[in-house]
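Pasting two entries for a bug report.
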Amino acid sequence: MSRKTRFSQAAVAVAVVALAASGCGESSTGAKSDGDKQSSGKYSGKGVGLAYDIGGKGDQSFNDAAFAGFQKADKEFGIGGRDVEPQDGESEADKVQRLTQLAKEGYNPVIGVGYIYASAVKEVSAKFPNTTFGIIDDETVQAKNVADLVFHEEQASYLAGVAAAKATKKAHIGFIGGVDIPLIHKFEAGYVQGAKSVNPKIKIESQYLTETPQEGGFSSPDKGKAGASGQIDAGADVIYHAAGLSGQGVISEAAAKKVWAIGVDSDQYNQSSLAAYKDYILGSALKNVGGAVYDLAKSVYEGKPLSGVVRGSLANDGVGFADSNPKYKALTDVVAAVDKAKKDIVDGKVKVDTK
């Protein structure tokens, strides 16, 4: 089983597409394949099959980043594909059925966006050994036809913590996680370590919106707004979220109260639906989900499918910190501290905690 670690460094622009849900809560789009572009003779699939995580397309974060990679692969290779929305309150059987249908229809690779697809990918990949499967944010599925697309989220979060600790005027910052699970603990651990590297005595508010994904921790902007309001009232003037769609509520509340927000996964300063709040988005802890989707699609198209653990880090541009906001760039001491922290991590001088 190969162990590849390099992610595409090409910029992937996130396209925002509003997708109306059908009665069952599931919908899809698909680009048409262009046979003229399929000149390599190696690819015989129907395109990329992309199954979204909770919150679906339009979250301006995790799922939209995956869709950007889907679009980039179609643009470059003309392979088309289909992207499918999750259902509200769906069962494990629903996920299995979704992936099975995509594989049966000939899509290759078939990608589950999020750790919630782990069991489904394990089951369905065994039934379709000639199809390549990808799963984002999980590395428990070990099979020759599965690529585990994972990231050092804690490294990007460390940079977010450094930025927050340098930007705060009160030595008081906050963290809001969508769901209380090990994956989101990595975001918090890196953020706290980064902040304390700047100021060991800094005060950090921490909150998880729900115990389980089914309770809406990743898909409820109102919960994010309420969480941010509480932390701001407590004195925090910089809040970092790792909460998917719920993060839109965090950002809007931060802007309303004129404090800094730090986004996640995508460069949220550049998201159209967050344009009204962008002056208060200090930066975003990036996770190159789009690059991972694109790289897997490219590998299958070229006849050399990735498999095993494919991990994004600061060293290979799989994670990072967005600096799009001119107001962030004007904070030269903050920028310098973040740049130094990145170099120290890449050089191995700093090892970032995951718990």
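Entry 2 (this is the one that rendered wrong in the viewer):
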Amino acid sequence: MTVMIFGCGYSGKAIARAFAEKGFSVAGTVRTLEGAEALASHHIKPYIFDGTAFSPELLAALRDVTHLIQSIPPGKEHDPLLKLVSGRLTALCPKLKWIGYLSTVGVYGDHGGGWVTEETPGSPILGRSIERVGTEEAWAEQGRIAGVPVAALRLSGIYGPGRNAFVNLDRGTARRIIKKDQVFNRIRVEDIGSATLFLAERNLAGIYNVTDDEPCAPQDVITEAARLMGVEPPAEVDFDSADMTPMARSFYGANKRVSNEKIRSLGFQFAFPNYHISLAQMWSETTWRG
């Protein structure tokens, strides 16, 4: 079996590792030659895809793909892959058995710190999240046309080796922004890989929150990482007076707690269900630098 990961970046590489460990042939797309060389160094067969057309090499590879992962975020032209495969999935990928679409918990919008599940109606407040809702539905429709199950994985804030509070503390860029009652969920990148494989192996369709068990204030994660490192955490900064980019500030406009009960009820077990376990593992095994 062969998995093709479109937009094989940080999360895509973790997905590739999970599938490779189960014996899949693994391929992925990137936009540049440098990116292709990086994929090859991770034992992922690389293909160049700029979002406008399939190369002859990529078209040939698609004929053997059994599992397709779409990890390219929507841009000005929305989902570039969706545009190219619309109505053509069966012809392009005759062996296709399952599709995974990486989405975001941003589709839920703001719930004042309340809990949301997959049944909660989407009410995104940011343009990029609004686009995700339509794209989820469009991929589900393409799956129905092709007779292939499509799972949308709604991811919370992604972190892991190389991208975490330890790295930010080490660089001196960590900030403890304080906004009253604000909470976020997060997800360890390896759990994204495992959850994608779990859904793929079972040919499951639908929407799944892929997120940790413990939504918390963002400054709590930095404080815990500083404790493990044996350093002083940075000073607290009030949200209202903090110097932040508009995009960084926009994330604080959506306050919610995201439940992962649906995927856990199916038998999936998170290796890193909360930031305490995750940070302790990265620190003790010295994997935090990536």
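Dev reply: Rendering is fixed now. As a check, the viewer should reflect this: The mean pLDDT is 95.
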